[in-house]
Amino acid sequence: MEKMLSDCSEETQDTDRDFPPDPKEEAFLILRAIGVMGRAMQDVSPSLISSVLRCMRKTDISLSNQKAAIQAFRLMEITDEIRSALLEVYQDTQSPAEKRLAAYLVLMKNPDHTLIREITNHLMDEKDEQLKSFVVSHLYNIHNSDDEKPE
After folding, report:
1. Which one of 37, 77, 83, 101 is least enclosed by Cβ atoms within 10 Å?
2. Sign for the pseudo-dihedral over CA of 114, 72, 90, 50
3. Alpha-carbon span 51 to 140, nearest angstrom
4. Half-sphere exposure of residue 40, counting CA atoms within 13 Å on the CB side?
5. Cα–Cα distance between 38 and 77 in angstroms, integer?
């Protein structure tokens, strides 16, 4: 999968096929498959994580593929490296709100107090009112929830 995903360039890798797939769609489907396999994929191919992180950070690929890369982490163990990269995406005001929101939601699958503090501190400077409103509402609902683990 790493070879197929390569650098998320959305360029056709295998032109020997009679009907080569759309490179954008192929990258999207690979990222989705990685996400569905989650932790198993993470355990079998730890180096794949760096490829997915590269896709997540690229801004010259389609937004749907950037979000698919972020969402690929939803069923994985969120390591410090992944958490840091997701937080960077969430805090990047130059990124589209959809991408930032996807990063926030994956981060919040298993937050700790430090992460919540960092997110709330960042809200003070947030310019995107819709994103800010969603995050505030989400954090409020978590705070008032009886659940042990927020989602």
Report:
1. 77
2. positive
3. 34
4. 5
5. 8
Locate 150 and state its tokens: 């927020």
The position carrying tokens 């999207």 is 28
CATH code for the structural domain at 2-143: 1.25.10.20
Give DSSP secondary structure letters for 47-102.
Answer: THHHHHHHHHH-SSS-HHHHHHHHHTTTTS---HHHHHHHHHHHH-TTS-HHHHHH
